[in-house]
């Protein structure tokens, strides 16, 4: 398979999947190295295809946000010890986490996709950061960060905010 054909096949895979696909999975499927896949993804992005990379793999950015739901921002502050509690509170109420962002004093706004909607996503994320807590983006800003979340409607969004406030996680001045 030629490189251009492989990139088109990768794009087709991303369109068909509702969950992230890792570079290693794609490399195995197309019998190339992981680094070749990383390059293919970079070339696809350079051709204006919106592909998001997360800690779970690649997916089309259009799969990230469902426009039939209310999308809002929450601002939180906590340490590593409350990370699982924060994520659990959000999904227990039926909301979906989209991303995390911090306002870094030097680099400005740093945003990373963080698609979490079920317990397995929380488990995977927590296992990923267990070895090195400094991997948390919020470790750059003393725990202060924001999330984009999706909820059924605005009232549902307020319920999530209220729960995080009860837990002492929602940032308030």
How is the topology of this model organized?
Elements: H1 3-16, H2 23-30, H3 34-46, E1 51-54, E2 57-60, E3 70-77, H4 83-92, E4 96-104, E5 108-116, H5 119-130, E6 144-151, H6 154-166
Domain Helix-turn-helix type: 6-58
Protein name: Transcription repressor NadR
Domain 3H: 74-170
Could you provide a short overview of the structure?
The protein has 173 residues and is of the alpha+beta class. The chain contains six helices and six strands, in the order αααβββαββαβα. Strand 4 and strand 5 form a beta hairpin.
Would you kindly provide a written description of the structure presented here, covering whatever features stand out?
The mean pLDDT is 90. The protein has 2 domains: 3-62, Arc Repressor Mutant, subunit A; 70-166, 2-Layer Sandwich (Histidine-containing Protein, Chain: A), CATH 3.30.1340.20. The chain is α+β, with helices and mostly antiparallel strands and 173 residues long. The protein contains 6 helices and 6 strands. It has helices at residues 3-16, 23-30, 34-46, 83-92, 119-130, 154-166; strands at residues 51-54, 57-60, 70-77, 96-104, 108-116, 144-151. Helix 1 crosses helix 3 and helix 2 crosses helix 3.
